[in-house]
Amino acid sequence: MKKFTHAAATLCLALSATSVLANPLFSLDNLERERAAYLKSHVNPDLTSEQLELQRTRLQTNLIDLERMVIRDQRLLNSGDPRVTRALAAYDTTFLIHSAAEKDANPFAHWLAQVNVTQAAIRNSEKGVR
Amino acid sequence: MKAPHLLKISALSLAMFGSQVFATDWQPASTDQLVQLPANIIEHRIEQDFQTSPMATRMSQLEQQLRDKAVVIGDLAAQVEQLEGEAKQAAEFELINEKSTYLDLMEENHTLRMQSTIKRRDLYNKVLNSVRSQSNQLPPADVVELQRVRQDAEARMEQTIARMTQTNNNLFGNRSAQDEQFANNVSLIEQGEQAIRNHPANQSPIINGESVTTEDYLRSLLIDSGKELAILDQEALLLSQMATLVALDADNLKYTISYGDNPQPNARSTDSTVTRSASLFF
Predict the structure, then answer these.
(1) B181: domain range?
(2) Is the distance from CB of B195 to CB of B104 less than 8 angstroms?
(3) At B73, which helix (H) or strand (E)?
(4) Inter-chain contact A91–B182, Cβ cutoff 8 Å?
(5) Are residues B132 and B148 in the same domain?
(6) C-beta of residue A56 within 8 angstroms of C-beta of residue A41
(7) B182 and A89: CB-CB below 8 Å?
(8) d(CA B235, CA B226)
(9) How far is B60 from chain A (nearest CA, A)?
(10) Of B41 and B206, which is predicted with more confidence?
(11) pLDDT tens figures, B197-227
(12) Predicted complex ipTM exceeds 0.85
């Protein structure tokens, strides 16, 4: 009985140690990294249009999966991290692909609209030091 | 007879609070281990560790010795009432000696009780801080608001998925194997969480019939140990008063042996020789 208790306690400790070590923001980190790669792909001059299309399709598919994972990840809510609060509050940028699909918009154009980069804003912009 | 008595009493006064050294330590379980336990088990675990410690063993020895000493003191006090003269003084000396030993034991017991209560208080404090740092830092109202935002976002996403699936959008229609596995696991995890919540070993601790959170429970343990420390402080004052009384008894006995029962000095004669002789001349 004592051995059993000891084994159970060791198991509990090992499991809790694993969960403590795991990063609770892992899914959100993955999503943000993938979204950054997707946005960067639009300003990459080294790829041909076919390569770009293939890359963007792959990245969008990944993003759809990751966005669903983030919305279902209870560990994010339990983390108490302010990044999670901000991410959930900004649905249109966090869940970019789903939000763009909801509005029948191109995800990249949708992103630019969300961060207030419009054609008029670009046209009115001036070169200089901020 | 008087000289050895005086010597012994002086030695007694000097060694009033001298105590022997015993192995009386208590190493409670670490905070990390305690935090993993259900709240209502934390106190049991701390108490169990304490009961098997050298400190608890020494305290129960002391309590037995105190009970034995109290009987001896009672018998001696009864004897003192019945005796007379030097036999009474010898019994009184023995009584003071026993009272002094009794106070030594009381002091040691009190010190150990104080140490164990302080250790408990510090331990509860550490566990409480650890529980706070491990649990969600957001206030409960913010957690509820965050849950609501997440549910709204999920509902919005589900609507988009349903619409995209209807329009045969390839990107949204083809779910990856990992996504399906993740969705399945989410529902399994929810079932697991429900089972954990309902498990008898994971029931909320109860104070006065009211179900409370781990943090509330630990706070109440902290408050209890604070009250216990306040009582121990009062007991320390009582102990010092008892020691003062024994020291006064010892002084009184010393003066009685030296100067007898009559505390008043012999009245000096005011009969002046000159005055007495005056009649011889006048």
Answers:
(1) 141-203
(2) no
(3) helix B54-82
(4) no
(5) no
(6) yes
(7) no
(8) 14
(9) 26
(10) B41
(11) 777 766 667 766 666 777 788 888 888 888 8
(12) no
